[in-house]
Design goal:
heterotrimer; A mainly alpha (about 425); B mainly alpha (about 300); C alpha+beta (about 675); A: about 425 residues; MetI-like fold; 2 domains; two-stranded antiparallel ribbon; 15 helices; C: about 675 residues; alpha+beta; Dipeptide-binding Protein, domain 3; 3 domains; 5-stranded mixed β-barrel; 26 strands; about 20% strand
């Protein structure tokens, strides 16, 4: 063994060996700590094939919804009705209530560009006298650009994605594999675009319910005593109000001529109101569950410990209690989302959902239901939206069950 | 007996308080949005409008309108008249609509309970079998399909392809069956799942093993011993289920042309017929309270450990 | 809790459940009706003086009968001719025989026919009509159709409370038995108006809401003080107080005093109105003769007497129960072919053949049910399963299939226009070029042929075709180039900088689809367009307060004359609701009232020219009827106003079993 070049004091030697000792202990500890609640839960969840399948399905769905503008889909809003008086009759197709088919469809981009090039060429050769008219025509022609019909009022990100999609796929788009609706719009594109609205609605609403419910429940449970009593009585009162009434009510108030412009100024439209509203209603169960958990947790020793070292109430609630109730919260979140989606469908049925040309699954399902009559069954209008809708709800329910089993086996019975 | 009376009294007081709060909030909110209560297709002259305003007491200050309407409600059970339907008293609408909605709800609930518990028990007893799997898939489907979709498919199936039920209307048992089934289906599904989980947990417990050890038959153990323990979550679910069935019937009453409280409420709310909507909401609120009180009571009965607080 | 109770609880619960189920199954049943039809919606009222909608129309036609009846007449050629094509409508004697009209067309004399009775057995008399029409015109009744009697001399004056010094007036003192009920009336004082004292008119800041201004003005009018020289001598049947001298009346004396009135004692009154008997040209010459004097020749007045708002109401019934109580089951007394047997809200109205109707031998159907079926799909389902014999409309998605496959689906042109109202006060829609551009961009043929598919006719005029002798003036055809040019002229080339346009419609699948198509067509101009839907009540609210930009509307002619369409858009007309005003248009409509029949139509045609140039409305299409009638029903005749009096219908075989019973 090579000697160290400098002499070691006994104390240093002892210190080093102690350090080594502690290091070893620490690494050991680290290797033991490996099985946290989350890892444990994840392991259990992985064993549950239906929950995992649901999870993959939902992740895929979320990705597809997010990247919908990038996909080679038809326009969700372009109507394809036979127009006898069209300027260019070849362009107009009668695709009303077309059943699913493989017949190729294009965006009409090539045609558009050809005509545009033609106009530009004309413009280059034109005399000054004709120039003005041609420029006008060119400018007008911009309104016919198929890209403009890809989405209604797209945001910056969506526009960018649409441009990317045009760059990648060009004129190509998938045929109407799921048929077309009463105005000849492609059902598949509508389902994809509708998923964006429906998913955002569900997420926003669930998030709102999460924030309100967790805060409320945690505060109530932590403070206890008469405050807890009062706060829970308030929840009881809200529980016994049929909230469909509240929603209808508030929607009518907020769509009133007096209120609407003010909201529009802040970019708040009916969809956002709807979601915040739904979220603000679904927090009740969340609050109850979180309160129950907090009450049972707050007598635990580590909370006592935190209190003795002088942590403030806020710190205890938000740093110590809430992370520990997260498991339950996640479970209820996955069960809130399907409830919100069902509610959105219900509102669409009553005509209170999003307004055209925006589209949501609720609207699609409702349109589908109206298209099945004993006289004529346009089955694709109810089958595909209904299938996607139900599958999603199905997956969310399975995932919720799986998470519940995985995160807190004791909750099974609740 | 005393704790029971105390319990009922306290619940009753809470109910009164809740109804009062709901009424107050809804009253002022509705007045805030009620642009023009007498808007018709044709513009009305100011004079004519004034006559109408006077007739309904709209010319008085809001607070005195509120006091008067509260007074009428508490002393004479007068919930005002419909604003859009020929001034029909709201109490009459409730009297006409309540039995209809109640019949529908009772049927749906009984159906949900019967189907749900039976399917749940079978699933739990023959767990992981094909039967279990198909029941549970059906149950999840029941939760995942909106009831208006279910209703239209059921109409296609059982009214037109296999013509056994009428398409709508109210009055005979046959007209009741289809809407009640559609209304109860999601709740049956949920109850089935609850029963199954509860049952599986109970079946693992010692007293069940003891019962088997005593030589009792399968049927007796499951029905007499296990079911009792497994039914608790189902009972506690009945409160929310009642609420859900009440709300769910809004849609089905519309689809099946049933003149119940749900259709009155929906039409009134959408058309801003506030007295009617408000009256219906108060009835629903009371129903929910009663349902929840019954659930809490039955909890005490089923589980000896639970006491009335 | 004692264990014993715990033991029996499950059984108790089961018993309770059983009782509940048994109760839920206890249905009181009604015997099935002979004929059941879908009436579209719940009726809002059964008072002819108040009703406005078509569900009410169908029921009122059965419960009451006017001076004349407007019936579709059978034409030779069998079912084909009578169902798939419109048959003519003909005026028939009702309570009275066809009227004698003076040569100037201004005085109508109706001679009542024998055996016309109320359902309580009393004969229908001319004073009944005087009473009913006075009630319709009375400002307190607030009937929206009161304007139909503005053609009568003094009718408008009485209805709108236009008083001038020296007018004969009648004062109703504040001593009614029930102050909120118009009938029975308080003591009446007859006299001459000697003066009106008005307090200072309230002034408003610029930002005072319109509703607030309106209510303050109404309050102001309440405190007017009327000085009346009472000269009542004829104390007759109509309860006039024998009184002479000068008195001061006010609806709100304390407000008048507070407003500064100090010229003597004020008596509180309900109304000071023009003296009906002296001012209004409606007179009962005797019990069986009614004379009506019109302001000018009004060729469609006889048609109006067959319209429900001019139906008689039974005075003793109204006075006994008050409004609206008199229209309830058991109270209502009518003079029509049917009586009201049962009315269950949002379910059905049951009608039974009247035992006192003069033509009862020729009324085939004994019992008729009118269902308040709002959902078209449910109505169709119930029709297809035989629960309903006649549905008045069908869902859009099945129209094409029905036309191809079924012989019991009838579509014929109707006297109804579907149009978009444009709020001409909302920029940029105040620019007529924008309105023309919007109109030119709508592909109406596409909407009719591809979306609606029931044979609707694209509308280029406001007045529908089918009115004899009238020539409609047209707007420009669909022309996208023209639309673009107009838009550029208005300062928005290719829609650049153009504010969003909002289309308002009442919640309905068909309206939504049409709006979606128009939304896309306007996008071609570069115009961004939003949709907004409201339920009917809120929709009307937005419309009457002009809180919209573009709004879906429809108008059905109450009688077959262009006037019912065109007089809507006179300045501040109660049905104008677009804010549009044109002096020349007003002049033409007014002038048309005072000229010969041919000249009249020419003037109306000129007025329509203005309307179609200025375009405060964008006509879209003309309706067709969409009736589905069970082949076992006989006597159903398609017609331009979609009138189907129940007394014309019969069923074969009678009393076929139908599922129509009602709970409790």
């Amino acid at each position: 063994m090579e000697q160290p070049s400098f002499p070691e004091t006994p104390a240093a030697v002892a210190g080093a060996s102690a350090k080594q000792h502690y290091d070893r202990l620490l690494t050991e500890a680290a290797s033991i700590r490996g099985v946290s609640l989350w890892q444990d839960a994840w392991k259990r969840l992985r064993r549950n094939w239906s929950a995992m399948l649901s999870l993959y399905f939902l992740i895929a769905l979320g990705m597809l919804a997010f990247f919908t503008p990038l996909l080679p889909l038809q326009s969700p809003i372009k109507q394809n009705l036979r127009d006898a008086s069209a300027e260019n009759p070849s362009q107009s197709q009668d695709r009303q209530f077309a059943p699913p088919s493989w017949q190729p469809v294009s965006l009409g981009l090539t045609q558009y560009r050809e005509k545009l090039a033609q106009l530009n060429a004309d413009l280059a050769q034109a005399s000054t006298a004709e120039r003005k008219a041609l420029e006008d025509q060119l400018e007008r022609y911009e309104n016919d650009n198929p890209i403009r019909e890809m989405a209604s009022n797209p945001g910056v990100l969506t526009s960018a994605m649409i441009s990317a999609r045009i760059a990648i796929f060009g004129d190509f788009c998938l045929p109407s594999l799921m048929g077309t609706d009463n105005l000849g719009r492609d059902v598949m594109a509508r389902i994809f675009w509708g998923s964006r609205v429906s998913i955002i609605v569900a997420l926003v609403a669930a998030f709102v319910s999460l924030v309100i419910g967790v805060t409320y429940g945690a505060i109530s449970g932590y403070l206890g005593g008469w405050i807890d009593n009062l706060m829970m009585r308030f929840v009881d009162i809200l529980y016994s109000i049929p909230f469909i009434f509240v929603v209808i009510f508030i929607i009518t108030i907020l769509s009133d001529e007096k209120v609407k412009p003010a909201l529009d100024r802040y970019g708040i439209n009916q969809i956002i109101i709807l979601y915040v509203l739904i979220g603000a209603i679904y927090w009740l169960t969340m609050a109850r569950v979180v309160r129950g958990q907090v009450i049972s947790l707050k007598t635990e020793q580590y909370i006592e410990a935190a209190r003795t070292i002088g942590a403030s109430s806020g710190r205890i609630v938000f740093r110590h209690l809430i992370p520990n109730v997260l498991g339950v919260v996640i479970v209820y979140l996955t069960l809130t989302i399907p409830a919100v989606m069902l509610f959105e469908a219900f509102l669409s049925f009553l005509g209170l959902g999003v307004t055209p040309p925006d589209v949501s699954w609720g609207i699609l399902v409702n349109e589908g239901v109206q298209a099945i009559t004993p006289i004529k069954v346009y089955w694709w209008l109810v089958l595909f939206p209904g299938l996607v809708f139900s599958l999603t709800l199905f997956a969310l329910n399975f995932l919720g069950d799986g998470l519940r089993d995985a995160l807190d086996p004791r909750l099974k019975n609740k | 007996m005393l704790p029971l009376l105390k319990f009922l009294f306290r619940r009753f007081m809470w109910m009164i308080l809740t109804v009062w709060i709901v009424y107050t909030i809804a009253f002022f909110l509705s007045r805030a949005v009620e642009g023009d209560p007498f808007a018709g297709e044709r513009a009305m002259s100011a004079e004519v409008k004034r006559y109408k305003m006077e007739r309904y007491g709209y010319d008085k200050p809001l607070v005195s309108q509120y006091a008067r309407s509260l007074w009428l409600m508490t002393t004479q059970l007068d919930l005002h008249e419909s604003r859009k339907l020929n001034e029909i008293p709201v109490t009459q609408l409730i009297a006409e609509g309540f039995p209809v909605s109640a019949s529908l709800g009772i049927f749906a609930l009984v159906f949900a309970l019967a189907l749900g518990t039976v399917a749940g028990v079978i699933s739990a007893v023959y767990r992981y079998s094909f039967l279990d799997f198909s029941f549970m898939t059906a149950a999840t489907l029941g939760i995942a399909v909106p009831n208006f979709v279910l209703a239209s498919i059921a109409i296609m199936l059982f009214v037109f392809w296999i013509p056994i039920f009428p398409a709508g209307g109210w009055g005979t048992l046959r007209q009741l069956v289809l809407p009640a089934l559609c209304l109860g289906a999601p709740f049956a599904a949920y109850i089935a799942r609850l029963t199954r989980t509860g049952m599986m947990e109970v079946l693992n417990q010692d007293y069940i093993r003891t019962a088997y050890a005593k030589g009792l038959g399968d049927r007796r153990v499951v029905l007499r011993h296990a079911l009792r323990g497994a039914i608790l979550p189902v009972v506690s679910y009945l409160g929310p289920a009642t609420a859900g069935i009440l709300t769910g019937s809004l849609v089905l009453e519309r689809i099946f042309f049933i003149p119940g409280m749900g259709s009155h409420f929906i039409e009134a709310a959408l058309q801003r017929d506030f007295p009617v909507a408000l009256g219906m909401v108060m009835v629903y609120t009371m129903l929910l309270f009663v349902a929840n009180a019954i659930v809490d009571l039955s909890y005490v009965v089923i589980d000896p450990r639970v006491r009335l607080e | 809790m004692p264990p014993a109770i715990r033991q029996i609880f499950p059984y108790l619960a089961l018993v309770l459940l059983g009782v509940g189920v048994a109760w839920a199954m206890s249905f009181g049943t009604l015997p099935p009706a002979d004929f059941t039809f879908a009436n579209g919606d719940e009726v809002k009222t059964l008072d002819p003086g108040i009703a406005t909608g078509s569900p009410e129309h169908r029921i009122l036609d059965a419960l009451f009968e006017g001076l004349l009846r407007l019936h579709p007449v059978e034409v030779p050629g069998g079912a084909e001719k009578n169902l798939y094509e419109n048959v003519p409508l003909k005026l028939l004697p009702g309570v009275a025989d066809l009227p004698e009209v003076t040569n100037d067309g201004q005085t109508y004399t109706f001679h009542f026919l024998p055996d016309r009775k109320w359902s309580n057995g009393r004969a229908v008399t001319a004073p009944d009509f005087v009473f009913s029409w006075q009630r319709l015109l009375h400002p307190e009744n607030a009937g929206e159709y009161a304007y139909q009697l503005h053609y009568v001399v003094g009718g408008k004056k009485y209805n709108l409370e236009q008083l001038e010094i020296g007018d004969p007036v009648e004062v109703e003192l504040y001593d009614r038995p029930v102050p909120s009920q118009m009938y029975p009336r308080g003591t009446m004082i007859r006299g001459k108006l000697a003066g009106i004292w008005k307090p200072e008119k309230p002034t408003f800041a610029k930002d005072t809401p319109a509703a607030e201004q309106e209510s303050q003005l109404a309050q102001w009018k309440k405190s007017f003080v009327y000085t009346v020289q009472a000269e009542t001598k004829d104390v007759g049947e109509r309860k006039y107080a024998p009184l002479t001298g000068t008195f001061r009346y006010s609806k709100d004396p304390s407000a008048a005093v507070a407003g500064g009135f100090d010229d003597g004692q004020i008596v509180q009154c309900h109304h000071v109105l023009a003296d009906f008997d002296k001012v209004v040209g409606i007179r009962a010459l005797d019990d069986n003769t009614l004379q009506v004097e019109l302001n000018s020749a009004t060729p469609y007045f006889d048609q109006l007497t067959a319209f429900f708002s001019l139906y008689p109401v039974c005075r003793e019934c109204v006075e006994k129960y008050g409004t609206p109580e008199w229209t309830r089951t058991g109270h209502l007394i009518g003079n029509g072919a049917y009586t009201l047997k049962k009315h269950r809200v949002r379910d059905r109205i049951r009608l039974e053949k009247s035992a006192t109707y003069w033509n009862r031998e020729h009324v085939p159907l004994e019992v008729v049910d009118a269902l308040a079926l709002k959902s078209d799909t449910t109505a169709l389902n119930m029709y297809l399963t035989g629960q309903v014999d006649w549905i008045i409309t069908v869902p859009n998605t099945v129209v094409q299939q029905l036309r191809e496959d079924r012989t019991d689906f009838y579509t014929t042109p109707m006297l109804t226009t579907y149009f978009y109202r444009v709020n001409v006060n909302k920029p940029p829609l105040n620019d007529v070029r924008i309105r023309r551009a919007l109109n030119a961009a709508i592909n109406k043929a596409l909407i009719c042929d591809e979306v609606l598919k029931a044979g609707q006719i694209p509308a280029r005029s406001y007045v529908p075709p089918g009115i004899a002798g009238y020539h409609s003036e047209l707007t420009g055809d669909q022309d996208l180039e023209e639309a673009r040019k107009l838009l550029a002229e208005a300062g928005y080339p290719n829609g650049k900088g153009m504010p969003k346009v909002e289309i308002l419609f009442n919640t309905n699948e068909d309206h939504r689809v049409i709006a979606e198509v128009i939304q896309q067509q306007w996008r071609k101009l570069g115009i961004n367009c939003e949709l907004r839907n409201l339920e009917w009540g809120s929709f009307l609210d937005a419309l009457s307060n002009q809180k919209y930009m573009v709004s879906r509307s429809a108008w059905t002619g109450d009688y077959a004359d262009p006037n019912t369409f065109l007089d809507m858009f006179v300045t501040d007309g109660p049905n104008n609701q677009t804010g549009w005003s044109n002096a020349e248009y007003d002049r033409l409509i007014e002038a048309a009232k005072h000229v010969s029949a041919e000249e009249r139509l020419k003037l109306l045609s000129q007025a329509e020219r203005i309307l179609m140039d200025e375009l405060p409305i964008l006509p879209i299409y003309f309706y067709v009827t969409k009736n589905m009638v069970n082949p076992r029903v006989k006597g159903f005749r398609s017609n331009i106003q979609d009138l189907h009096p129940l007394d014309l219908l019969s069923v074969e075989p009678p009393n076929a079993p139908t599922e129509s019973t009602t709970a409790r």
